[in-house]
Amino acid sequence: MSMSRSPSPHPGAGWSSPGLTPGSGTSTPRSGYLSPNHLGANGISWATAKAKSDEVRGYPSFSTRNNGFFSRSKRQISATLPRFRLNTGSSPNGYYVDKDEYGRGPKSGSGRSWLPFGGFGRSMFRRKRSRLLLLLITLGIGYLWFWSVIVETYRRSSFGGGRKFVIILQSNIEGGVMEWKGAREWAIERNSIRNKQQYAKRWGYEVELVNMLAKKRYSHEWRESWEKVDLIRETMRKYPEAEWFWWLDLNTWVMEESYSLQEHIFNRLEDITYRDINFYNPLNISHPLTEGYLDEISRSPAGDEHPSSIQLLLTQDCGGFNLGSFFVHRSLWTDRLLDAWWDPVMYEQKHMEWEHKEQDALEYLYVSQPWIRSSVGFMPQRYVNSFPPGACGDDDPDVHYKEGGRDFLVNMAGCNYGRDCWTEMVEYREYSKWLNRSWWERTRGGLSGWYEKLAPGKQKQQ
Amino acid sequence: MQFALPPRRNLHAPYPNSSRLSFQRRRQLKAVAILGFTLLAVFFLLSQILYSSTGTSAVPAGTPSIVLVTVLDRALWSDNYIQKIIKNREDYAKRHGYTNFFANWSDYEPSLEGSPRSWGMVPAMRHAMASHPYSKYFFYLDTHALIMNPSQPLESHLLDKNRLESLIQKDVSVVPPDSIIKTFSHLQPEDIDLIITTDNEDMNPGSFVLKQGEFSRFLLDVWFDPLYRNYNFAKAETHALDHIVQWHPTVLSRLALVPQRIINAYSKESNGAGKDGSYKEGDFIIRFFGCDSDPKRNCEKELDPYYNLWAKKLKNE
């Protein structure tokens, strides 16, 4: 099964693995040197794969987004705006308060920048009462119409902190020639994307849709679902300002759009993460490491215990690591992890065992390479990755979405296997809508409920 | 825009009134400004203190900057032989204020899980770094080697920025003779964490310098991965390193290849020296490469003449 030494990558031939060739059914001799661009049955060539991938994965060096006049000037305007008071306990001047916008924003410092022209206004008031009224009305209308736009623009600007986060959403799974997508698959994709885009728009994040179209490149190198690693790396290059990258599978639903990533997770990393895997250890990984030659941090159960050293933030389900929803931080450490994640020698030996591919590989690396442990943080699953009830083992309350628990995100993991993804998604979509209905819908619902109590008969007739 | 010019009637505003106001206002403003400035200054000072207390870890006095790492396999080699090696290296370390880390191969035996003995050097390096957390450079030198030019400090010989810059081999194949993976042509000395040489066939980990830091932990842990150790590489850790460097650009980007004779000159009995890789009088180090694996050779015998040469030189000084 193994070679005396690992072959170097050489022009015209990819990773040649004698152990695998018979099994994979390709026994044609190498044609690599004859034509460097020929994608022989023996495998895509190293050099061409690289050139190809540059071509396919490349993105224009200039930005194609924000080219319109309005979006450009919006950005400029927002950069010169004063800091807005995003969150107020009491409404500042008796204006109409949109419940959806107010009271949920990040808590920024209180300021009175709201009415910078108090004294000026008073003198105006005596003489120009009508003018003031007009101004108030304009402001009121402007507020009603544009307030959320202003807040969103602010969050998207460099002050707002929204640019630090990029959501990487997989799409077009098995698209292309492999499988025709049906109406349901399209609907799932449309809905899921829309959900993330809405969420990202509200908080000023970016959504990067990555195309998981089955590619010859990966099928040839037997690394079908390993493009996750490449895609993360590309996204990091594309958004140089972003710090955290949130990978999301397609079958997920953001239930609580009002939670910002900052408030929900990153401002309280220390409180909600655990570094010592013994806290919840479905894989029974022996931790901490005890080898005497390791340094103190590698041997400590919780790394250096500074939340700033967390570079990979993930959750575990009942079967181990779960990569349906996880965060990576831009850093040298992450570069190294992404680089080490796929290695031909390891893959060649383990690809039959590693059913969940990159997930298993990560678990393996975590177990066998101490440098990784000290920068991985875990979160209880329900912070970012709740499963639908019954998806994983028995009714473990720490794994599954709980009604009324206001969990942030549902990951309909495994819905492709014997469950109905679309129905589940619709259920969660509607439930999320109902949970986050506006005050008007709430009152109406309350009133009709009250009415129902008073006259149950009439309601039934309707 | 309508207030760009003051309206005419403002000129007739009661002056004493407004100047009294502005006087009060000025005093208030002054107070506020002073207060604000003081607060800022205090905050700045505090943050400086807090930052420096967490940002830089104080290096205890007397920390050696360079640690020489040797793995001693007492089960295989006579005590006499091992004493000679130790003497040679202790003398060198003492001259320049370095420290030796002599590791016992048997300490790592359980972690090797049956892989070839030569893998012991990887955990030994990790061990040395854990025991000397404040030292910067770790120089691993195979057991079967002598330092022949002990007056040469490692800094001016290899590590100084200018010296290293002149030694780095750019755009050459990392695995001789013709790997298409080549060292980067834009390498800067400050990016370098691993300094190593190639011989005729491989990148040779019998003599290399590794800088302590995140990179070193990453490299050593990847290198020591059980799947590499179980892969039956013909040359064990040597081939594993060849493999890592060729397939993982994050390692390649931190690696400097230097001419073989700088830290890894082979004795004339050793096979496989690269071009201009054989020991010449005055070279820093001589290695008896392969004397332990070739049954026809005898390390102890090969060492003796050079050891005597070194001892004589020492006496004359």
Automatic annotation (TrEMBL), chain A:
Output the Gene Ontology cellular-component terms: Golgi membrane
- Does S-adenosyl-L-methionine show up as a keyword for this record? no
**Low complexity compositional bias: what residue ranges?**
14-32
Q: Could you tell me which residues belong to the region Disordered? A: 1-34
| Gene3D superfamilies listed in its UniProt record | Spore Coat Polysaccharide Biosynthesis Protein SpsA, Chain A
A family per Pfam: Glyco_transf_34
Record GO biological process: protein N-linked glycosylation
Secretion signal span: none
Q: Name one GO molecular function term.
A: glycosyltransferase activity
Q: Which family does it belong to?
A: Belongs to the glycosyltransferase 34 family.
Query: This chain belongs to which protein, by name?
Result: Alpha-1,6-mannosyltransferase
The organism's lineage is:
Eukaryota, Fungi, Dikarya, Ascomycota, Pezizomycotina
From TrEMBL, chain B:
The parts of the chain that form a coiled coil are none
Q: Which GO terms describe its molecular function?
A: alpha-1,6-mannosyltransferase activity
Q: Pfam families annotated for this entry?
A: Glyco_transf_34
Q: Write the record's keywords in alphabetical order, separated by commas.
A: Glycosyltransferase, Membrane, Transferase, Transmembrane, Transmembrane helix
Q: Name one GO cellular component term.
A: mannan polymerase complex
Q: Which InterPro entries match?
A: Glyco_trans_34, Nucleotide-diphossugar_trans
Which GO biological process annotations does it have? protein N-linked glycosylation
Which segments cross the bilayer? 29-51
Into which family does the record put it? Belongs to the glycosyltransferase 34 family.
Q: What is the protein name given in its UniProt record? A: Alpha-1,6-mannosyltransferase subunit
Provide the species name: Aspergillus nanangensis
